[in-house]
Amino acid sequence: MRPPLPLKLISSIALISTLSLMSGIPLLQATAAPTRSTTELLDYAYPKSLSWRVRRDLARRVGVPTKNLRVVEAQRQTWNDACLELAAPDEMCAQQLTEGWRIVLAHGQQTWTYHTDAQGRSLRLESADRAITLPRNVVFRSQSSGGFAGQTYETVLFTDGRVQQKITLNAGKNAPVRSWRVTPEKVREFQALLDHEQFQTFNQRTFPATPGAADFFLVRLTSPTGSVEYADIEQEKLPRSLKTIIQAWNSLR
């Protein structure tokens, strides 16, 4: 037979229970798990060591503790050269495709963008006033990633009218590359439209999704004169000239 509890212990338990009922606080209260902002765009296949490397590098540059920097975007990328498309002035870069990542870090409202190789052994930080580096034979490029499927699309228009689209699946595998052609006249018309609508005025601008939005693609458009990002679900809210460029681009695809 189990011995009875001491009277003092019984009194203590009763007192705690009474105080709990009076205050409305349960004896054991579960803590809600932190929620992740749905505007964060993360490919969870990216190496976790990569997060540590870019955060450590940025912490040294800006003096913010590593623990206060968070990764808000991680997208697979195929860079067009060994310099991760961020060559320094007069730097010679091997013209070879380099698999890697585009990582965006945030601290408060400020963000920084890194280009890295596949494992983060090579990483470069974008500067706000950096020159756009595209191969000379590229007229325009779009890169989009996100959605629940987590796929990444890269579509490139070349000066000779070739268009290539590369799709990276969620598991990191590449689908067969799609290729087609547009006429030289269409290429010239599109280049003229970029100039007429002043695409360069959107350089380094971002049009994010409304907080709380989900299942959207983040699209990055790049020409030799500028680069802009927008969430596809916000396309109707974009400036008129940018929407005109997007519509013309989609007509080539």
The CATH class of the largest domain is identified as Alpha Beta
Number of strands: 12
CATH architecture name of the largest domain: 2-Layer Sandwich
Our Rg estimate from Cα atoms comes to 25 Å
Overall morphology: globular
Oligomeric composition of the shown chains: single chain
Helix content: 10-25%
Number of domains: 2
Number of H- or I-type helical stretches: 4
Provide mean pLDDT, rounded. Answer: 79
Beta content: 25-35%
Distance between the termini: 82 Å
Q: Biggest sheet: strands, sense, closure?
A: 7 strands, mixed
Poorly predicted runs: 7-39
What structural class do helix, strand and pairing data support? alpha+beta
Outline of the structure:
The chain is of the alpha+beta class and 253 residues long. Helix content is 23%, strand content 30%.
Structural notes for this entry:
The chain has 253 residues and is of the alpha+beta class. The protein folds into two domains: 37-131, no CATH class; 132-253, Mago nashi protein (2-Layer Sandwich), CATH 3.30.1560. The protein is globular. Mean pLDDT is 79; it is low at 7-39. It is built from four helices and twelve strands. The strands form two sheets. It has a seven-stranded mixed β-sheet, with no helix packed on it. Strands 1-2-3-4-5 form a five-stranded mixed β-sheet, with helices on one face.
